[in-house]
Specification:
single chain, 292 residues, alpha/beta, Rossmann fold, 16% strand, globular
Length: 292
């Protein structure tokens, strides 16, 4: 069993980006600038945005954090997005989800300029990705592709089973794993909450990508020997024996499934760190596109 170490690979990517930024500075070029919009005081969102800002500092990017109160109206947020769209100093920006209930998330994501949409959520980027055109790939799927590539995991002709059909992970992964090229060229089955006899399907899989959000859903008796397992799940589970009062669990029973897997991602330390690294990579790509 080989651990797909997202922590190590994300650090490698950040070092590569930092080197690119160093060369940009030497040439007297403007360095990439990432902005993040945070509406309200959601604890998990605050932590996540904070780590994005720290990562920007580490690689030499400029960063801007736009904080808005939880009472912000949809119109006020759309106005702020319009300002960021027209600000030539900003290369890419993200609007941290979830948003307060008075704001329509879809309307907000549609308002982001696709050339600055480094989260890869705008329908224009999603459509281009589906058509194998150049586009920003959503950061988590982009990170999964990078892990598979850097560990030389064979995907051509393999049967990939994806658990979960979200627009952020499941749906884009089903497109990316079936595309021509590497990683890709696999036969994809997309499963979800209405799929019957899911264990019968996962037992046939050469690669399982689970983005369900149900702790330890995938058990050892649901996979075959030699399977490649990508665990995207991340759920807080109460645990009074832990000083924090909780532990982080993935979708996969790591101990049981790990005994049968050829490659597997841990939780934490697998897909999670890759997401921020690929957000930085998308921002670097956005800077290069704006330059040309």
């Amino acid at each position: 069993m080989t651990i797909l170490d997202g922590k190590k690979i994300s650090n490698d990517i950040k070092n590569e980006i930092a080197e690119e930024v160093r060369k940009m500075k030497e040439r007297g070029e403007k360095v990439p600038h990432l902005a993040a919009v945070l509406v309200g005081d959601d604890g998990a969102s605050l932590t996540y945005v904070g780590s994005k800002v720290k990562s920007c500092e580490r690689v030499g990017f400029e960063s801007t954090l736009v904080r808005m109160p939880a009472t912000t109206s949809e119109e006020e947020l759309l106005q702020k997005i319009k300002e960021l769209n027209h600000n030539d100093d900003i290369d890419g920006f993200i609007v941290q989800l979830p948003l307060p209930r008075q704001i329509d998330e879809q309307k907000v994501l549609m308002a982001v300029d696709p050339t600055k949409d480094v989260d890869g959520f705008h329908p224009e980027n999603f459509g281009k990705m589906a058509l194998d055109m150049e586009a920003f790939i959503p950061a988590t799927p982009f990170g999964i592709l990078e892990l598979l590539e850097r560990y030389h995991v064979e995907t051509k002709g393999k049967h990939t089973v994806i658990i979960g059909r979200s627009h952020i992970v499941g749906r884009p992964m089903s497109i990316l794993m079936s595309r021509k090229g590497y990683p890709g060229n696999s036969t994809v089955t997309l499963t979800h909450s209405s799929t019957q006899n899911i264990a019968e399907i996962t037992k046939q899989a050469d690669i399982v990508i689970s983005a369900l959000g149900v702790p330890e859903f995938l058990k050892a008796d649901m996979v075959k020997d030699g399977v490649v397992v990508i665990d995207v799940g991340i759920t807080r589970v109460s645990d009074e024996s832990n000083p924090k009062g909780y532990v982080i669990k993935g979708d996969v029973d790591f101990v049981g499934v790990g005994k049968k897997a050829s490659f597997i991602t841990p939780v934490p330390g697998g897909v999670g760190p890759m997401t921020i690294a690929m957000l930085l990579k998308n921002t670097l790509l956005a800077r290069e596109q704006r330059k040309s």
